[in-house]
Amino acid sequence: QVPLKPGRSLMDWIRLTKSGKDLTGLKGRLVEVTEDELSKHNKKEDCWICIRGFVYNVTPYMEYHPGGEDELMRAAGTDGTDLFDQVHRWVNYESMLKECLVGRMAVKPIAAPKANILMTLLFAGVLPEKKVLASSAKELSPRIHNKIVILVVLSKLLTLSLVFKSSNYDWFQTDSLITVVIYTKQKDMNAELVIVDCQDKQLRGEIIMDDHSYLVEVDLEHAVLEDVAVNIAEKVGKVEIILSKKDNIHWKMLGQPREGHNTFIKCTDRGLFYRKCKLVSKTEVTHDTKLFCLMLPKGTHLRVPTGQHVYLKQVIAGTEVVKPYTPVLPFLPLDFQEPPHHDGVHIYLMIKIYSHGLFTQALDHLQIGDYISVSNPEGNFKKSHVQTSEDLLLLAGGTGFTPMVKLLNFALTEVSCLRTVKLIFFNKTEDDILWRNQLEQLALKDERFEVQFVLSQPSKEWVGKQGKISSSLLSEFVKRSRRDSKVLICICGPAPFTEQGVQYLKDLGYSQEEIHAFTA
Ligand code: FAD
Ligand code: NAP
Fold first, then answer.
1. Which residue puts its alpha carbon closest to atom 1 of ligand 2?
2. Which terms under GO biological process does the entry name (predicted)?
3. What class has domain 274-378?
4. Summary mean pLDDT of the chain
Protein backbone atom coordinates (compact mmCIF):
# COMPACT_ATOMS: atom_id res chain seq x y z
CA GLN A 1 0.00 0.00 0.00
CA VAL A 2 1.16 3.55 -0.73
CA PRO A 3 -0.05 6.77 0.91
CA LEU A 4 -2.75 8.28 -1.29
CA LYS A 5 -3.22 12.01 -1.84
CA PRO A 6 -6.09 13.64 0.06
CA GLY A 7 -9.35 13.20 -1.82
CA ARG A 8 -8.24 9.89 -3.34
CA SER A 9 -9.81 7.37 -0.95
CA LEU A 10 -12.03 4.50 -2.03
CA MET A 11 -15.07 6.58 -1.05
CA ASP A 12 -13.82 9.42 -3.25
CA TRP A 13 -13.45 6.95 -6.10
CA ILE A 14 -16.98 5.66 -5.59
CA ARG A 15 -18.23 9.25 -5.67
CA LEU A 16 -16.36 9.93 -8.91
CA THR A 17 -17.85 6.82 -10.54
CA LYS A 18 -21.34 8.04 -9.60
CA SER A 19 -20.72 11.58 -10.87
CA GLY A 20 -21.72 10.77 -14.45
CA LYS A 21 -18.26 11.80 -15.72
CA ASP A 22 -17.09 9.97 -18.87
CA LEU A 23 -14.30 7.84 -17.37
CA THR A 24 -13.45 5.84 -20.49
CA GLY A 25 -13.29 8.75 -22.91
CA LEU A 26 -15.62 6.81 -25.22
CA LYS A 27 -18.83 8.65 -24.33
CA GLY A 28 -20.57 5.51 -23.14
CA ARG A 29 -19.74 3.40 -26.23
CA LEU A 30 -18.38 -0.12 -25.74
CA VAL A 31 -15.76 -1.26 -28.25
CA GLU A 32 -14.13 -4.54 -29.24
CA VAL A 33 -10.44 -4.33 -28.47
CA THR A 34 -7.74 -6.18 -30.38
CA GLU A 35 -4.45 -7.11 -28.72
CA ASP A 36 -2.73 -4.61 -30.95
CA GLU A 37 -5.08 -1.83 -29.87
CA LEU A 38 -4.71 -2.78 -26.19
CA SER A 39 -0.93 -2.59 -26.37
CA LYS A 40 -1.09 1.01 -27.63
CA HIS A 41 -2.73 2.17 -24.40
CA ASN A 42 0.28 1.67 -22.18
CA LYS A 43 0.96 5.09 -20.71
CA LYS A 44 -0.18 6.58 -17.41
CA GLU A 45 -2.28 9.19 -19.19
CA ASP A 46 -3.77 6.54 -21.51
CA CYS A 47 -3.76 3.19 -19.78
CA TRP A 48 -5.96 0.21 -20.65
CA ILE A 49 -5.80 -3.13 -18.87
CA CYS A 50 -7.56 -6.38 -19.71
CA ILE A 51 -8.96 -8.52 -16.86
CA ARG A 52 -10.67 -11.79 -17.76
CA GLY A 53 -11.44 -10.67 -21.28
CA PHE A 54 -12.77 -7.23 -20.36
CA VAL A 55 -10.78 -4.08 -21.02
CA TYR A 56 -10.79 -1.14 -18.60
CA ASN A 57 -9.41 2.37 -18.98
CA VAL A 58 -7.65 2.68 -15.61
CA THR A 59 -6.13 6.13 -16.15
CA PRO A 60 -8.79 7.88 -14.04
CA TYR A 61 -8.25 5.25 -11.29
CA MET A 62 -4.44 5.67 -11.12
CA GLU A 63 -4.38 8.05 -8.17
CA TYR A 64 -6.95 6.02 -6.27
CA HIS A 65 -5.15 2.67 -6.52
CA PRO A 66 -4.15 1.66 -2.96
CA GLY A 67 -1.15 -0.24 -4.35
CA GLY A 68 0.10 2.84 -6.24
CA GLU A 69 0.36 3.89 -9.86
CA ASP A 70 3.53 1.94 -10.61
CA GLU A 71 1.89 -1.31 -9.56
CA LEU A 72 -1.03 -0.64 -11.90
CA MET A 73 1.35 0.29 -14.72
CA ARG A 74 2.89 -3.19 -14.57
CA ALA A 75 -0.17 -4.37 -16.48
CA ALA A 76 -0.53 -1.34 -18.78
CA GLY A 77 -1.61 -2.26 -22.30
CA THR A 78 -1.66 -5.98 -21.51
CA ASP A 79 -3.73 -8.78 -20.05
CA GLY A 80 -3.35 -8.19 -16.29
CA THR A 81 -5.47 -11.16 -15.18
CA ASP A 82 -2.63 -13.23 -13.71
CA LEU A 83 -1.07 -10.23 -12.00
CA PHE A 84 -4.45 -9.22 -10.61
CA ASP A 85 -5.13 -12.74 -9.32
CA GLN A 86 -1.74 -12.88 -7.64
CA VAL A 87 -2.18 -9.61 -5.79
CA HIS A 88 -5.88 -9.37 -4.97
CA ARG A 89 -8.22 -11.64 -6.80
CA TRP A 90 -10.82 -10.95 -4.11
CA VAL A 91 -11.17 -7.28 -5.01
CA ASN A 92 -14.44 -6.82 -6.80
CA TYR A 93 -13.05 -5.02 -9.82
CA GLU A 94 -16.21 -5.51 -11.92
CA SER A 95 -18.10 -3.32 -9.50
CA MET A 96 -15.23 -0.92 -8.74
CA LEU A 97 -14.28 -0.35 -12.38
CA LYS A 98 -17.64 -0.66 -14.09
CA GLU A 99 -17.58 2.97 -15.24
CA CYS A 100 -14.11 2.40 -16.76
CA LEU A 101 -15.20 -0.47 -19.01
CA VAL A 102 -13.98 0.07 -22.55
CA GLY A 103 -15.27 -3.24 -23.95
CA ARG A 104 -14.37 -6.86 -24.58
CA MET A 105 -11.23 -8.28 -26.11
CA ALA A 106 -11.83 -9.24 -29.73
CA VAL A 107 -10.09 -12.56 -29.13
CA LYS A 108 -10.36 -13.80 -25.57
CA PRO A 109 -6.88 -13.88 -24.01
CA ILE A 110 -5.70 -17.23 -22.67
CA ALA A 111 -4.90 -15.85 -19.23
CA ALA A 112 -8.51 -16.28 -18.08
CA PRO A 113 -8.83 -19.19 -15.58
CA LYS A 114 -7.45 -21.92 -17.79
CA ALA A 115 -8.15 -24.95 -15.71
CA ASN A 116 -11.65 -23.77 -14.97
CA ILE A 117 -12.58 -23.48 -18.61
CA LEU A 118 -10.86 -26.72 -19.50
CA MET A 119 -12.61 -28.65 -16.79
CA THR A 120 -15.97 -27.11 -17.48
CA LEU A 121 -15.71 -27.94 -21.16
CA LEU A 122 -14.57 -31.45 -20.52
CA PHE A 123 -17.15 -32.26 -17.94
CA ALA A 124 -19.87 -30.54 -19.91
CA GLY A 125 -19.06 -32.79 -22.86
CA VAL A 126 -18.42 -35.88 -20.82
CA LEU A 127 -21.32 -35.90 -18.52
CA PRO A 128 -24.66 -35.13 -20.10
CA GLU A 129 -26.94 -33.63 -17.46
CA LYS A 130 -29.29 -36.52 -16.98
CA LYS A 131 -26.50 -39.04 -16.74
CA VAL A 132 -24.56 -36.98 -14.24
CA LEU A 133 -27.45 -36.89 -11.93
CA ALA A 134 -28.91 -40.32 -12.50
CA SER A 135 -29.78 -41.94 -9.20
CA SER A 136 -27.24 -44.70 -9.68
CA ALA A 137 -23.98 -43.01 -10.59
CA LYS A 138 -22.08 -46.32 -10.53
CA GLU A 139 -22.40 -46.71 -14.29
CA LEU A 140 -20.75 -43.34 -14.69
CA SER A 141 -17.54 -44.24 -12.98
CA PRO A 142 -15.70 -45.85 -15.90
CA ARG A 143 -16.71 -43.01 -18.16
CA ILE A 144 -15.44 -40.44 -15.71
CA HIS A 145 -12.16 -42.30 -15.30
CA ASN A 146 -11.65 -42.43 -19.06
CA LYS A 147 -12.10 -38.76 -19.19
CA ILE A 148 -9.79 -38.24 -16.25
CA VAL A 149 -7.07 -39.95 -18.25
CA ILE A 150 -7.80 -37.69 -21.18
CA LEU A 151 -7.82 -34.75 -18.85
CA VAL A 152 -4.45 -35.61 -17.35
CA VAL A 153 -2.94 -36.03 -20.81
CA LEU A 154 -4.49 -32.77 -21.93
CA SER A 155 -3.44 -30.91 -18.84
CA LYS A 156 0.11 -32.21 -19.27
CA LEU A 157 0.07 -31.01 -22.84
CA LEU A 158 -1.06 -27.65 -21.65
CA THR A 159 1.52 -27.79 -18.83
CA LEU A 160 -1.15 -27.13 -16.27
CA SER A 161 0.00 -28.39 -12.93
CA LEU A 162 -3.10 -30.44 -12.25
CA VAL A 163 -2.92 -33.56 -10.15
CA PHE A 164 -6.30 -35.19 -10.30
CA LYS A 165 -7.00 -37.50 -7.43
CA SER A 166 -9.95 -39.20 -9.15
CA SER A 167 -12.64 -37.80 -6.90
CA ASN A 168 -16.17 -38.77 -7.71
CA TYR A 169 -19.64 -38.51 -6.29
CA ASP A 170 -22.80 -40.49 -5.96
CA TRP A 171 -26.19 -39.96 -4.40
CA PHE A 172 -28.96 -42.03 -2.93
CA GLN A 173 -32.21 -41.52 -1.09
CA THR A 174 -34.52 -42.85 1.58
CA ASP A 175 -38.10 -41.74 2.15
CA SER A 176 -36.97 -38.67 4.01
CA LEU A 177 -33.28 -38.11 3.17
CA ILE A 178 -31.04 -37.37 0.22
CA THR A 179 -27.40 -38.29 0.72
CA VAL A 180 -24.71 -37.03 -1.63
CA VAL A 181 -21.46 -38.95 -1.21
CA ILE A 182 -18.13 -37.67 -2.42
CA TYR A 183 -15.23 -40.12 -2.55
CA THR A 184 -12.14 -37.98 -2.28
CA LYS A 185 -9.76 -40.89 -1.65
CA GLN A 186 -7.79 -38.37 0.37
CA LYS A 187 -6.46 -39.38 3.77
CA ASP A 188 -6.98 -36.99 6.67
CA MET A 189 -10.10 -35.45 5.19
CA ASN A 190 -11.62 -33.24 7.87
CA ALA A 191 -14.48 -30.84 8.55
CA GLU A 192 -12.39 -27.79 7.63
CA LEU A 193 -11.93 -29.11 4.12
CA VAL A 194 -15.65 -29.42 3.40
CA ILE A 195 -17.79 -26.36 2.70
CA VAL A 196 -21.48 -26.92 2.04
CA ASP A 197 -24.20 -24.42 1.26
CA CYS A 198 -27.76 -25.45 0.66
CA GLN A 199 -30.21 -22.62 0.19
CA ASP A 200 -33.24 -22.08 -2.03
CA LYS A 201 -33.02 -25.52 -3.69
CA GLN A 202 -29.39 -24.95 -4.59
CA LEU A 203 -26.73 -27.31 -3.29
CA ARG A 204 -23.06 -26.37 -3.38
CA GLY A 205 -20.54 -28.73 -1.81
CA GLU A 206 -16.86 -27.86 -2.11
CA ILE A 207 -14.03 -30.13 -1.00
CA ILE A 208 -10.55 -28.69 -0.60
CA MET A 209 -7.73 -31.04 -1.56
CA ASP A 210 -4.36 -29.33 -1.15
CA ASP A 211 -4.49 -26.35 -3.47
CA HIS A 212 -7.33 -27.82 -5.54
CA SER A 213 -11.05 -27.82 -5.05
CA TYR A 214 -13.72 -30.30 -6.12
CA LEU A 215 -17.25 -29.00 -6.49
CA VAL A 216 -20.72 -30.49 -6.54
CA GLU A 217 -23.12 -27.73 -7.58
CA VAL A 218 -26.69 -28.57 -8.42
CA ASP A 219 -30.14 -26.99 -8.67
CA LEU A 220 -31.99 -29.64 -6.66
CA GLU A 221 -34.99 -31.33 -8.23
CA HIS A 222 -37.17 -30.82 -5.16
CA ALA A 223 -37.19 -28.67 -2.05
CA VAL A 224 -35.27 -29.72 1.07
CA LEU A 225 -35.43 -28.55 4.67
CA GLU A 226 -32.98 -25.89 5.80
CA ASP A 227 -30.70 -28.11 7.90
CA VAL A 228 -27.76 -29.92 6.34
CA ALA A 229 -25.60 -32.57 7.99
CA VAL A 230 -22.06 -33.45 6.95
CA ASN A 231 -20.43 -36.77 7.81
CA ILE A 232 -16.79 -37.40 7.13
CA ALA A 233 -15.04 -40.75 7.19
CA GLU A 234 -11.60 -39.23 7.74
CA LYS A 235 -9.46 -42.28 7.07
CA VAL A 236 -10.97 -43.16 3.69
CA GLY A 237 -11.82 -39.63 2.66
CA LYS A 238 -15.54 -40.21 2.17
CA VAL A 239 -17.75 -37.15 2.62
CA GLU A 240 -21.52 -37.41 2.99
CA ILE A 241 -23.81 -34.42 2.64
CA ILE A 242 -27.20 -35.29 4.08
CA LEU A 243 -30.27 -33.27 3.15
CA SER A 244 -33.80 -33.73 4.51
CA LYS A 245 -36.56 -33.88 1.91
CA LYS A 246 -39.31 -31.35 2.41
CA ASP A 247 -41.89 -33.80 1.01
CA ASN A 248 -41.61 -37.55 1.18
CA ILE A 249 -41.56 -38.14 -2.54
CA HIS A 250 -39.25 -40.22 -4.68
CA TRP A 251 -36.67 -38.11 -6.54
CA LYS A 252 -35.96 -39.23 -10.11
CA MET A 253 -32.81 -37.20 -10.25
CA LEU A 254 -30.73 -35.06 -7.94
CA GLY A 255 -31.29 -31.98 -10.08
CA GLN A 256 -29.69 -29.91 -12.81
CA PRO A 257 -25.95 -29.28 -12.76
CA ARG A 258 -24.76 -25.71 -12.34
CA GLU A 259 -21.74 -24.12 -14.00
CA GLY A 260 -19.06 -25.39 -11.66
CA HIS A 261 -20.59 -28.83 -11.10
CA ASN A 262 -18.22 -31.80 -10.94
CA THR A 263 -15.10 -29.74 -11.57
CA PHE A 264 -11.73 -30.22 -9.92
CA ILE A 265 -9.63 -27.10 -10.34
CA LYS A 266 -7.11 -24.95 -8.52
CA CYS A 267 -8.68 -23.12 -5.57
CA THR A 268 -7.36 -19.84 -6.93
CA ASP A 269 -9.26 -20.40 -10.19
CA ARG A 270 -12.56 -20.76 -8.39
CA GLY A 271 -14.47 -17.54 -7.73
CA LEU A 272 -15.06 -16.67 -4.10
CA PHE A 273 -18.42 -17.93 -2.88
CA TYR A 274 -20.37 -15.81 -0.40
CA ARG A 275 -23.35 -16.54 1.83
CA LYS A 276 -25.35 -14.05 3.90
CA CYS A 277 -24.73 -14.26 7.65
CA LYS A 278 -26.74 -12.61 10.37
CA LEU A 279 -25.09 -10.25 12.87
CA VAL A 280 -26.11 -11.62 16.25
CA SER A 281 -23.96 -9.60 18.64
CA LYS A 282 -21.39 -6.83 18.79
CA THR A 283 -19.25 -6.55 21.94
CA GLU A 284 -16.66 -3.93 22.86
CA VAL A 285 -13.09 -5.21 23.15
CA THR A 286 -11.32 -1.84 23.45
CA HIS A 287 -12.25 1.80 22.79
CA ASP A 288 -12.14 1.21 19.02
CA THR A 289 -12.28 -2.56 18.51
CA LYS A 290 -15.33 -4.80 18.60
CA LEU A 291 -16.05 -8.50 18.55
CA PHE A 292 -18.68 -9.21 15.89
CA CYS A 293 -20.53 -12.50 16.11
CA LEU A 294 -22.05 -13.66 12.83
CA MET A 295 -24.40 -16.60 12.43
CA LEU A 296 -24.08 -18.90 9.43
CA PRO A 297 -27.30 -19.85 7.63
CA LYS A 298 -28.75 -23.21 8.65
CA GLY A 299 -27.86 -24.86 5.35
CA THR A 300 -24.18 -23.93 5.62
CA HIS A 301 -21.31 -26.08 6.85
CA LEU A 302 -18.20 -23.93 7.13
CA ARG A 303 -15.21 -24.04 9.51
CA VAL A 304 -12.50 -21.45 9.06
CA PRO A 305 -9.11 -23.14 9.50
CA THR A 306 -6.49 -21.73 11.85
CA GLY A 307 -4.46 -19.01 10.15
CA GLN A 308 -7.01 -18.35 7.42
CA HIS A 309 -9.22 -15.34 6.77
CA VAL A 310 -12.59 -14.72 5.13
CA TYR A 311 -13.78 -11.78 3.05
CA LEU A 312 -16.73 -9.66 4.05
CA LYS A 313 -18.70 -7.94 1.31
CA GLN A 314 -20.99 -4.95 1.66
CA VAL A 315 -22.59 -2.64 -0.86
CA ILE A 316 -21.41 0.85 0.05
CA ALA A 317 -22.86 3.77 -1.93
CA GLY A 318 -23.92 1.35 -4.66
CA THR A 319 -20.52 -0.30 -5.04
CA GLU A 320 -19.61 -3.75 -3.73
CA VAL A 321 -16.67 -3.42 -1.36
CA VAL A 322 -14.74 -6.45 -0.07
CA LYS A 323 -12.25 -6.61 2.84
CA PRO A 324 -10.48 -9.53 4.54
CA TYR A 325 -10.93 -10.39 8.24
CA THR A 326 -9.49 -13.21 10.34
CA PRO A 327 -11.95 -15.14 12.52
CA VAL A 328 -11.04 -15.51 16.20
CA LEU A 329 -12.54 -17.47 19.08
CA PRO A 330 -15.19 -15.91 21.33
CA PHE A 331 -12.52 -15.84 24.09
CA LEU A 332 -9.16 -17.44 24.85
CA PRO A 333 -9.92 -20.81 26.45
CA LEU A 334 -7.83 -21.47 29.55
CA ASP A 335 -8.48 -25.16 29.69
CA PHE A 336 -6.38 -27.10 27.25
CA GLN A 337 -7.57 -30.61 27.94
CA GLU A 338 -9.49 -30.87 24.68
CA PRO A 339 -9.63 -29.06 21.34
CA PRO A 340 -12.22 -26.28 21.59
CA HIS A 341 -15.70 -27.30 20.74
CA HIS A 342 -16.77 -25.52 17.56
CA ASP A 343 -20.48 -24.92 17.56
CA GLY A 344 -20.38 -24.86 13.78
CA VAL A 345 -22.78 -21.95 13.65
CA HIS A 346 -20.99 -18.78 14.73
CA ILE A 347 -18.05 -16.85 13.29
CA TYR A 348 -16.34 -14.32 15.59
CA LEU A 349 -14.47 -11.38 14.12
CA MET A 350 -12.42 -8.87 16.09
CA ILE A 351 -12.49 -5.68 14.09
CA LYS A 352 -10.99 -2.24 14.66
CA ILE A 353 -13.35 0.55 13.65
CA TYR A 354 -11.39 3.37 11.98
CA SER A 355 -12.96 6.81 12.25
CA HIS A 356 -12.36 7.38 8.53
CA GLY A 357 -12.49 3.75 7.48
CA LEU A 358 -14.84 3.07 4.59
CA PHE A 359 -15.67 -0.54 5.37
CA THR A 360 -15.43 -0.55 9.15
CA GLN A 361 -17.68 2.50 9.47
CA ALA A 362 -20.34 0.72 7.41
CA LEU A 363 -19.81 -2.41 9.50
CA ASP A 364 -20.20 -0.48 12.72
CA HIS A 365 -23.53 0.84 11.46
CA LEU A 366 -24.95 -2.65 11.00
CA GLN A 367 -27.75 -3.42 13.44
CA ILE A 368 -28.18 -6.71 15.27
CA GLY A 369 -30.24 -8.88 12.90
CA ASP A 370 -28.76 -7.32 9.74
CA TYR A 371 -27.03 -9.53 7.18
CA ILE A 372 -23.56 -9.38 5.67
CA SER A 373 -21.91 -11.57 3.00
CA VAL A 374 -19.10 -13.83 4.19
CA SER A 375 -16.81 -15.70 1.78
CA ASN A 376 -15.15 -19.09 1.91
CA PRO A 377 -11.85 -19.12 3.82
CA GLU A 378 -8.50 -18.40 2.22
CA GLY A 379 -4.89 -18.25 3.30
CA ASN A 380 -1.63 -20.10 2.93
CA PHE A 381 -0.86 -20.90 6.55
CA LYS A 382 -0.20 -24.60 7.15
CA LYS A 383 -0.91 -26.03 10.60
CA SER A 384 1.75 -28.63 9.94
CA HIS A 385 4.39 -25.90 10.40
CA VAL A 386 3.36 -25.63 14.03
CA GLN A 387 2.99 -29.36 14.55
CA THR A 388 6.72 -29.90 14.11
CA SER A 389 7.91 -26.90 16.13
CA GLU A 390 9.34 -26.78 19.63
CA ASP A 391 9.32 -23.00 20.03
CA LEU A 392 6.54 -20.84 18.66
CA LEU A 393 7.00 -17.06 18.56
CA LEU A 394 4.14 -14.78 17.66
CA LEU A 395 4.79 -11.15 16.73
CA ALA A 396 1.58 -9.14 16.48
CA GLY A 397 0.93 -5.45 15.78
CA GLY A 398 -2.56 -4.12 16.63
CA THR A 399 -5.29 -6.23 15.02
CA GLY A 400 -2.48 -8.36 13.61
CA PHE A 401 -3.27 -10.24 16.82
CA THR A 402 -6.33 -11.86 15.17
CA PRO A 403 -4.61 -14.81 13.42
CA MET A 404 -2.66 -15.45 16.63
CA VAL A 405 -5.82 -16.23 18.61
CA LYS A 406 -6.66 -19.57 16.98
CA LEU A 407 -3.00 -20.29 16.43
CA LEU A 408 -2.24 -19.87 20.12
CA ASN A 409 -5.12 -22.07 21.09
CA PHE A 410 -4.23 -24.73 18.53
CA ALA A 411 -0.58 -24.75 19.63
CA LEU A 412 -1.33 -25.07 23.34
CA THR A 413 -4.08 -27.63 22.84
CA GLU A 414 -2.93 -29.89 20.08
CA VAL A 415 0.82 -29.66 19.63
CA SER A 416 2.56 -31.87 22.15
CA CYS A 417 6.14 -31.19 21.03
CA LEU A 418 5.86 -27.43 21.69
CA ARG A 419 7.90 -26.33 24.67
CA THR A 420 7.53 -22.56 24.55
CA VAL A 421 4.93 -20.22 23.07
CA LYS A 422 5.73 -16.52 23.25
CA LEU A 423 3.57 -13.63 22.07
CA ILE A 424 5.20 -10.23 21.60
CA PHE A 425 2.33 -7.83 21.16
CA PHE A 426 3.02 -4.33 19.77
CA ASN A 427 0.49 -1.57 20.33
CA LYS A 428 0.42 2.19 20.53
CA THR A 429 -1.01 2.57 24.05
CA GLU A 430 -2.20 0.41 26.94
CA ASP A 431 -5.81 1.09 25.93
CA ASP A 432 -5.16 -0.51 22.54
CA ILE A 433 -4.10 -3.90 23.91
CA LEU A 434 -6.63 -6.51 22.83
CA TRP A 435 -7.64 -9.16 25.38
CA ARG A 436 -4.84 -8.12 27.74
CA ASN A 437 -6.56 -9.67 30.74
CA GLN A 438 -7.16 -12.97 29.01
CA LEU A 439 -3.58 -13.13 27.77
CA GLU A 440 -2.22 -12.48 31.25
CA GLN A 441 -4.53 -15.13 32.70
CA LEU A 442 -3.36 -17.60 30.11
CA ALA A 443 0.29 -16.88 30.92
CA LEU A 444 -0.44 -17.58 34.60
CA LYS A 445 -2.28 -20.77 33.79
CA ASP A 446 0.08 -22.33 31.27
CA GLU A 447 3.78 -22.23 31.97
CA ARG A 448 4.65 -22.82 28.31
CA PHE A 449 3.05 -19.48 27.40
CA GLU A 450 4.57 -16.03 27.90
CA VAL A 451 3.29 -12.64 26.73
CA GLN A 452 5.25 -9.43 26.33
CA PHE A 453 3.50 -6.14 25.59
CA VAL A 454 5.48 -3.44 23.78
CA LEU A 455 4.05 0.08 23.44
CA SER A 456 5.12 2.63 20.85
CA GLN A 457 3.28 5.58 22.43
CA PRO A 458 3.06 4.70 26.16
CA SER A 459 1.88 6.96 28.92
CA LYS A 460 4.35 8.05 31.62
CA GLU A 461 2.96 5.39 33.94
CA TRP A 462 3.85 2.47 31.66
CA VAL A 463 6.62 0.44 33.24
CA GLY A 464 6.69 -2.26 30.58
CA LYS A 465 8.66 -2.45 27.38
CA GLN A 466 8.44 0.42 24.93
CA GLY A 467 9.50 1.06 21.36
CA LYS A 468 8.80 -0.23 17.90
CA ILE A 469 9.72 -3.45 16.21
CA SER A 470 13.50 -3.39 15.83
CA SER A 471 16.47 -5.65 15.55
CA SER A 472 17.59 -5.06 19.13
CA LEU A 473 14.13 -5.62 20.55
CA LEU A 474 13.72 -8.85 18.61
CA SER A 475 17.15 -10.13 19.57
CA GLU A 476 16.13 -9.64 23.20
CA PHE A 477 12.88 -11.61 22.96
CA VAL A 478 13.15 -13.99 20.03
CA LYS A 479 15.28 -16.88 21.23
CA ARG A 480 15.40 -20.62 20.82
CA SER A 481 14.77 -22.54 24.03
CA ARG A 482 17.69 -24.82 23.07
CA ARG A 483 20.52 -24.16 20.68
CA ASP A 484 19.14 -26.34 17.92
CA SER A 485 15.41 -26.33 18.71
CA LYS A 486 12.93 -26.13 15.85
CA VAL A 487 11.34 -22.70 15.82
CA LEU A 488 8.42 -21.11 14.01
CA ILE A 489 7.96 -17.34 14.07
CA CYS A 490 4.62 -15.93 12.92
CA ILE A 491 4.23 -12.23 12.27
CA CYS A 492 1.20 -10.08 11.50
CA GLY A 493 0.38 -6.38 11.66
CA PRO A 494 0.53 -3.21 9.53
CA ALA A 495 2.31 -4.07 6.25
CA PRO A 496 5.52 -2.11 7.03
CA PHE A 497 5.63 -3.64 10.52
CA THR A 498 5.48 -7.14 8.99
CA GLU A 499 7.99 -6.36 6.24
CA GLN A 500 10.49 -4.82 8.65
CA GLY A 501 9.97 -7.62 11.17
CA VAL A 502 10.71 -10.30 8.57
CA GLN A 503 13.88 -8.47 7.53
CA TYR A 504 15.09 -8.12 11.15
CA LEU A 505 14.45 -11.81 11.76
CA LYS A 506 16.44 -12.75 8.69
CA ASP A 507 19.24 -10.44 9.81
CA LEU A 508 19.20 -12.29 13.14
CA GLY A 509 19.82 -15.55 11.27
CA TYR A 510 16.32 -17.06 11.05
CA SER A 511 15.59 -18.78 7.76
CA GLN A 512 12.63 -18.18 5.46
CA GLU A 513 11.22 -21.59 6.47
CA GLU A 514 11.21 -20.54 10.12
CA ILE A 515 9.12 -17.42 9.43
CA HIS A 516 5.47 -17.14 8.44
CA ALA A 517 4.19 -13.65 7.59
CA PHE A 518 0.44 -13.15 7.43
CA THR A 519 -0.29 -10.82 4.53
CA ALA A 520 -3.20 -10.14 2.19
P1 FAD B 1 -9.86 2.16 5.07
O2 FAD B 1 -10.93 3.00 4.46
O3 FAD B 1 -9.07 1.29 4.17
O4 FAD B 1 -8.92 3.03 5.99
C5 FAD B 1 -8.35 2.56 7.22
C6 FAD B 1 -7.61 3.68 7.91
O7 FAD B 1 -6.40 3.89 7.27
C8 FAD B 1 -8.35 4.98 7.91
O9 FAD B 1 -8.04 5.68 9.08
C10 FAD B 1 -7.81 5.66 6.69
O11 FAD B 1 -7.90 7.04 6.81
C12 FAD B 1 -6.39 5.13 6.66
N13 FAD B 1 -5.88 4.86 5.30
C14 FAD B 1 -6.42 4.02 4.39
N15 FAD B 1 -5.68 3.98 3.30
C16 FAD B 1 -4.66 4.81 3.51
C17 FAD B 1 -3.54 5.19 2.74
N18 FAD B 1 -3.31 4.67 1.56
N19 FAD B 1 -2.67 6.07 3.27
C20 FAD B 1 -2.87 6.57 4.51
N21 FAD B 1 -3.90 6.26 5.28
C22 FAD B 1 -4.77 5.39 4.79
N23 FAD B 1 -8.68 -5.87 10.44
C24 FAD B 1 -9.31 -6.11 11.62
O25 FAD B 1 -9.72 -5.17 12.31
N26 FAD B 1 -9.49 -7.41 12.05
C27 FAD B 1 -9.08 -8.49 11.33
O28 FAD B 1 -9.31 -9.63 11.73
C29 FAD B 1 -8.42 -8.24 10.08
N30 FAD B 1 -7.97 -9.27 9.33
C31 FAD B 1 -7.30 -9.00 8.17
C32 FAD B 1 -6.81 -10.07 7.41
C33 FAD B 1 -6.08 -9.82 6.27
C34 FAD B 1 -5.55 -10.97 5.45
C35 FAD B 1 -5.83 -8.48 5.87
C36 FAD B 1 -5.01 -8.18 4.65
C37 FAD B 1 -6.35 -7.41 6.59
C38 FAD B 1 -7.09 -7.66 7.74
N39 FAD B 1 -7.65 -6.62 8.47
C40 FAD B 1 -8.25 -6.88 9.67
C41 FAD B 1 -7.69 -5.25 7.93
C42 FAD B 1 -9.03 -5.03 7.14
O43 FAD B 1 -9.04 -5.85 6.00
C44 FAD B 1 -9.22 -3.59 6.66
O45 FAD B 1 -8.10 -3.17 5.96
C46 FAD B 1 -9.51 -2.64 7.81
O47 FAD B 1 -10.68 -3.07 8.48
C48 FAD B 1 -9.70 -1.20 7.35
O49 FAD B 1 -10.77 -1.14 6.45
P50 FAD B 1 -11.58 0.22 6.21
O51 FAD B 1 -12.21 0.12 4.85
O52 FAD B 1 -12.47 0.53 7.34
O53 FAD B 1 -10.46 1.29 6.23
P1 NAP C 1 -1.78 0.12 14.87
O2 NAP C 1 -2.54 0.21 16.14
O3 NAP C 1 -1.74 1.33 14.00
O4 NAP C 1 -0.27 -0.34 15.12
C5 NAP C 1 0.08 -1.42 15.95
C6 NAP C 1 1.54 -1.29 16.32
O7 NAP C 1 2.33 -1.39 15.13
C8 NAP C 1 1.87 0.06 16.96
O9 NAP C 1 2.81 -0.10 17.96
C10 NAP C 1 2.43 0.84 15.81
O11 NAP C 1 3.32 1.84 16.21
C12 NAP C 1 3.16 -0.24 15.04
N13 NAP C 1 3.41 0.20 13.68
C14 NAP C 1 2.51 0.77 12.84
N15 NAP C 1 3.10 1.07 11.68
C16 NAP C 1 4.39 0.70 11.80
C17 NAP C 1 5.50 0.76 10.95
N18 NAP C 1 5.41 1.33 9.75
N19 NAP C 1 6.67 0.29 11.39
C20 NAP C 1 6.79 -0.23 12.62
N21 NAP C 1 5.77 -0.30 13.48
C22 NAP C 1 4.58 0.15 13.08
O23 NAP C 1 -2.31 -1.12 14.05
P24 NAP C 1 -3.78 -1.45 13.58
O25 NAP C 1 -4.49 -0.17 13.22
O26 NAP C 1 -4.42 -2.33 14.56
O27 NAP C 1 -3.54 -2.20 12.22
C28 NAP C 1 -3.28 -3.56 12.17
C29 NAP C 1 -2.84 -3.94 10.77
O30 NAP C 1 -2.75 -5.36 10.73
C31 NAP C 1 -3.75 -3.50 9.63
O32 NAP C 1 -2.94 -2.93 8.64
C33 NAP C 1 -4.35 -4.80 9.13
O34 NAP C 1 -4.56 -4.77 7.74
C35 NAP C 1 -3.28 -5.82 9.49
N36 NAP C 1 -3.82 -7.17 9.66
C37 NAP C 1 -3.40 -8.11 8.78
C38 NAP C 1 -3.87 -9.39 8.90
C39 NAP C 1 -3.40 -10.47 7.94
O40 NAP C 1 -3.70 -11.60 8.08
N41 NAP C 1 -2.64 -10.14 6.95
C42 NAP C 1 -4.75 -9.74 9.92
C43 NAP C 1 -5.17 -8.75 10.80
C44 NAP C 1 -4.69 -7.44 10.67
P45 NAP C 1 3.17 3.39 15.79
O46 NAP C 1 1.95 3.56 14.94
O47 NAP C 1 3.11 4.15 17.07
O48 NAP C 1 4.39 3.70 15.02
1. 398
2. superoxide metabolic process
3. mainly beta
4. 87
